[in-house]
Design a protein that fits this description.
Blueprint (H helix, E strand, L loop, with lengths): L1 H17 L31 E3 L14 H13 L1 H21 L5 E12 L13 E15 L4 H67 L5 H16 L1 H18 L8 H4 L11 E3 L3 H7 L1 H21 L5 E12 L11 E10 L7 H67 L5 H35 L4 H5 L3
Parallel strand pairs: 1-4
Antiparallel strand pairs: 2-3, 3-5, 5-6
Helix pairs in contact: 2-4, 3-4, 4-5, 4-6, 4-9, 4-11, 5-11, 9-10, 10-11
């Protein structure tokens, strides 16, 4: 018996070594990448940030030089509930991988029982007198599927790739959250500035209204000027509530992003702060690095790898499945004899299952897995192209928004001078009130546009960092 057991074990160990791996071996698909960014056009103008190809963005939020922004980003990475969900999905994928890998090993079970039974006098044992007896039993049984054709190993390969895809998904969530924090923070600071500019202009318009009323009382100005000035004051005042509403909504979003109630950050953000300004130089890296740095691209590639392995799992059903089963028991009708050598019961031997007819289910499943692989291959290539597009769009937007900001800065200076001159001439009676009114409207409009343009410059830079896939490396190391 011992020699037979050894031969069975040796055969079971030799079969997987000699066996093959069903299904295709995965090879990362090649994609064409440009040598440099088409929109990468460094600027040497004063006050303009320059995009350079060396390096890659990491903790990009620090480059804005705003400690409060950095603090909110770090708190978001620690406490955000959406990120906690993504972390839980990573743990789920790791657990599924361990469950799948368990099929590579034997299943070993222990059992024990005690039976008190009576034979039937009128049954099969009718020739013997009916009597009671005890049966004591305990032992082990094992079952092991010998992975001859590699189906189980393909399943583990698919689980490994799925686990890595879950990690890439977690990293993509981190990038998205950091970009969302930057967007809401910049928007909030911009709204604070726009509210302050509107309030300052409202005060200046109120002073103009007071001047117009004095001139009217002195008989030096018509009532029409008074009504125009009053209408302008009311119109400007009406723009403040919507701005305050938007600011409160941005504040609420920031509170929820850090995993706190909506008003949690109100004390910290109560004081008005400047709109974050971009650093002098922006590192964008080279296009080929994007395939390794963007988590969404990496996730698409890992999903393709997992699906390729699933083809092998489906193909395994075309071939026989080999099993090795064993049983080792102690049985005795007397408790005193239970542990004696004569009470042993041993059974071991291989078995095979061969599918003969499954109604073409197996072939259909293989075709299904192949079609899913082709779908994910197209999705991966699409993700690569969209990643390149995101970067080019962000580079173009960042460059053009800086140009627009510079022009608006000049417009604000000119309108401020025009407003001062118009008010001075009107007070001396050298121009009509309509000139003052138009100058004030133009000044408020360009000041508001400049504040929005400064916001858009910062948002385009955040979009560029997000498109480059920057920051998740630092975020993954944040405790």
């Amino acid at each position: 018996m011992t020699g037979r057991i050894r031969r069975c074990l040796a055969l079971s160990l030799a079969l997987p070594v000699a066996g093959c791996m069903v299904g295709p071996d995965y090879v990362r698909p090649g994609v064409a990448t440009p040598e440099t960014w088409g929109e990468l056009a460094p600027s040497t103008e004063p006050g303009r940030s320059e995009a350079i190809a060396e390096g890659a963005p990491t903790a990009w939020w620090i480059s804005f030089g705003d400690p409060l922004l950095s603090s909110i980003v770090e708190r978001t990475l620690r406490s955000n509930l959406t990120l906690q969900q993504a972390e839980a999905r990573v743990i789920e994928a790791r657990s599924l991988r361990r469950i799948t890998a368990a099929d590579l090993w034997p299943n070993l079970n222990a059992s024990g029982s005690y039976t008190r039974a009576r034979t039937s006098k009128n049954g099969l044992g009718a020739l013997q007198a009916a009597k009671w007896y005890d049966l004591f039993q305990a032992g082990f049984d094992a079952n092991w599927e010998i992975d001859v054709f590699g189906g189980n190993r393909r399943a583990v390969e698919a689980a490994d790739a799925s686990e890595e895809a879950a990690e890439d998904d977690r990293n993509a969530v981190q990038i998205s959250l950091m970009g969302e924090v930057g967007l809401e923070y910049v928007t909030y600071r911009s709204l604070q500035q726009r509210i302050a500019l509107t309030a300052a202009n409202l005060e200046a318009q109120q002073q103009t209204l007071d001047l117009t009323r004095r001139l009217f009382d002195a008989g030096l100005a018509p009532e029409l000027d008074v009504q125009r000035a009053a209408a302008q004051v009311a119109t400007t005042a009406a723009t403040l509530p919507p701005l305050r509403q938007q600011a409160e909504q941005a504040l609420h979003s920031l509170g929820v992003l850090v995993g706190e109630p909506p008003m949690a950050l109100a004390p910290e953000l109560a004081a008005a702060g400047p709109i974050p300004q971009p650093p002098p130089q922006i590192a964008v890296g080279i296009p080929s690095d994007l395939l390794l740095r963007r988590p969404d691209v990496a996730r698409a590639e890992r999903q393709l790898a997992a699906q390729t392995a699933e083809i092998g799992v489906a193909t395994r059903d075309l071939f026989p499945r080999f099993f090795l089963s064993g049983l080792a028991d102690l049985q005795s009708i007397h408790a005193a004899d239970f542990f004696k050598w004569e009470s042993r019961l041993v059974s071991i031997g291989p078995s095979v299952q061969l599918p003969l007819f499954t109604g073409w289910r197996v072939r259909g499943n293989i075709e299904l897995q192949k079609a899913a692989q082709q779908e994910l291959l197209a999705a991966y290539r699409d993700a690569v192209l969209r990643a390149f597009q995101d970067v080019e769009d962000a580079l173009a937007g960042f460059s053009q928004q800086q140009a627009a900001r510079d022009q608006l800065g000049d417009a604000v200076d000119a309108n401020q001078r025009a407003t001062d001159l118009a008010r001075s001439l009107y007070g001396q009676g050298l121009t009509d009130f309509l000139t003052v009114l138009v100058a004030q409207v133009n000044l408020l409009s360009t000041q508001d546009s400049l504040a929005q343009s400064e916001r858009d410059v910062a948002l385009q830079l955040i979009a560029l960092y997000k498109a480059l896939g920057g920051g998740w490396e630092v975020a993954s190391n944040t405790p």
